[in-house]
Amino acid sequence: MITIPYLTAVSTYFSYGLLFAFGQLRDYSRRIFDWWSTNNLHGYAPICLAHEDFYIRRLYHRIQDCFGRPISSAPDAWVDVVERFSNDNNKTLKINHCRRTTKSTRCLNLGSYNYLGFGSYDEYCTPLVIDSLKKFSPSTCSSRVDAGTTSVHAELEECVAKYVGKPAAIVTGMGYATNSAIIPVLIGKVCFCCYLSCGDVTPKTYVLQGGLIISDSLNHTSIVNGARGSGATIRVFQHNTPAHLERVLKEQIAEGQPRTHRPWKKIMVVVEGIYSMEGEICQLPEIVSICKKYKAYVYLDEAHSIGAIGKTGRGVCELLGVDTADVDIMMGTFTKSFGSCGGYIAGSKDLIQYLKYQCPAHLYATSISTPSAQQIISAVKVILGEDGSNRGAQKLARIRENSNFFRAELQKMGFEVLGDNDSPVMPIMLYNPAKIPAFSRECLRENVAVVVVGFPATPLLLARARICISASHSREDLIKALQVISKAGDLTGIKYFPAAPKKQEEVKDTIKLD
Residue 427's closest CA among 402, 462, 478? Predict the structure, then answer.
C-alpha cells in the first residue's frame, strides 16, 4: 500500500483540476468560434468518447514528447534515441504532432525490458538465429495447426517445459495474447476441470456461470481482458495480500454462484511473479498454500520474473522455493529476458494437449517466427551454461547486483522507490502531473532515457518513472544514471524522503556519485 504525503496529494489534485478547468475553457471557446463553420460530419456519431478525447487533447498532447520515443539501434545498455520536434501549427488536424527528425542522440537506456542483455548481438545466439533465418525464412505464414510448426517450434516447447519444470508447454506468437486468449479457454464455456480429471478430448460445454476468477487488483491488462472475455465471475483481492485473498475465497465459496448459490465448478486465482508497474515480487508461498487449502487453481504470470530472478533464472518459484508442481498453470513471455517475442503456457500434458485443441492463439494466429524461436532456445542454453561457458551465470549475478545496488542508492538519495530486492523493475514515484514531463525531459537532456507513466496506466495520484535495469549495464553506467536522476530529482522536487546524514565510516564505504 502506497502512502501518499498529504501535501503531495493535495497539490496533485489541484494540478489535475487546473488542467481540467483550462481544458474545458478552451473547448468552450472553440465551440463558440467554430459554431458557424462548415461541418461535413453532420449526422455522424462521434468516433471518440468525449472524456477520452478530452484527455488526449488537453493533457496527453501537452507532454506527448515524453512517450513513444523512437530508437534507431538495438535496445542495449545504450540506445540511439531519435530526436523529435513539435509541430504546433498543424491547421488541418487541429492537434499538435511530434515529428521525428533524421538526428539521434546516444542515451543510456533505462527503459527496456532487456534484463539479461539478449536484445542485442550475442556471440552464441545471433549466429544460430541467422542460420535459422537462412534455413526457415523470416515467417511461417501459417498457424501452428497448418504449416506453422517446424522442428524448431517442437524443440522450443520441449526446452521451455524442461526449463520451467513442467511436463509440457505450448508457445504462442504474442505475449499479450497468451493471457487474453488462453484464460477464456481455461475457464470459459468449455470444461477444463473435467478434461483434467478424465482426459476425454471431447469438449464438455457448460453455461457461462460456474467459473470464478480471483485476480490481484494490480494484474496486467492482458489478464484483465482475458478474465472479462471468459464470461466467468470475477472477484479482486487486495494487491499481493494473501490474507485478503483467503477472505475473498471463504466468502465466495460460502455464497456460491450468483442467484443460484450453487457451488463453483472451478476457481482460478491469477497472480504475477513480478508486477511490472510496482516491481514487487509475488508472495507466492502463502498464496499457493491458501489455494491448496480451498482447492483453487493457481495461474502464475511470470512475464517479468522468468529468466530475470532465481539462481538459474527460473523465476519466482525458484527464488521463493515453491515447487512448480503446486502451480497449476505457469505463463511467461519471451519478450523480456530472452530478447525475442511470444509467450508460453506450461502445465500438465493433459492441459497442454487440451489447449492445442481449443486455444485460438494456437489454432488461428500465425505461429512465432522460426528465428525468434531459435533465439529463445539459444538464450535458455546460455542461461543454463549449455553453450559451454559461464556467461549465463554471470548475467544472472550481474542483474541481481545491478538491481540491488541501484535500488539502494536511489533510496539513500531520498526517492520513494517501489518494489523488492532482486527485482529489476523499480518505479520512482512522481505523483504530480507536472513532474512527469519535467523529470523525463531533464533526464533526456542529460542523455538518459527513462520511461514515465501516468493516468490511465496508473491511478490518478500515482504517476511514476519506471526504471528497468539490465545485466548489460556496467557499474559506470549505473553511476552516471544515478547522478542524472539525482540532479533531476532535485530540480523537480521528487525526493520525498530526504536521506539521513551518514556517519563518517559509512561515507568512506559509499561510492562517490557526485
Answer: 462
* Cell numbers placing 513: 556519485
Any residues with CB less than 8 A from the CB of 24 and at least 6 apart, and which? 54
The pLDDT, as a whole number, for residue 160 is 97
CB 172 within 8 A of CB 405: no
Rounded to an integer, the average pLDDT of 11-28 is 89
**How far apart, in whole angstroms, are the C-alpha atoms of residue 291 and residue 215?**
13
Q: 98: part of which helix (H) or strand (E)?
A: strand 97-109
Please give the helix or strand (H or E) that residue 404 lies within, else none. helix 391-413
* Main-chain dihedrals φ then ψ at residue 178, nearest 5 degrees: -60, -45
Q: What is the pLDDT of residues 325-352, one digit of tens each?
A: 999 999 999 999 999 999 999 999 999 9
Can you say whether residue 124 is alpha, beta or left, with left for phi > 0 and alpha for psi between -120 and 50 degrees? alpha
What DSSP element (H or E) covers 396? helix 391-413
Q: What is the CATH architecture of 125-384? A: 3-Layer(aba) Sandwich (3.40)
Yes or no: say if 10 and 433 are a contact pair by the CB < 8 Å rule: no
> C-alpha dihedral over 245, 250, 251, 253, to 10 degrees?
120
Cell 466468502 sits on residue: 251
Q: What is the pLDDT of residue 63?
A: 87
| DSSP string computed for 157-217 | HHHHHHHHT-SEEEEES-HHHHHHHHHHHHHSSB-HHHHHHH---S--B--STTEEEEEET
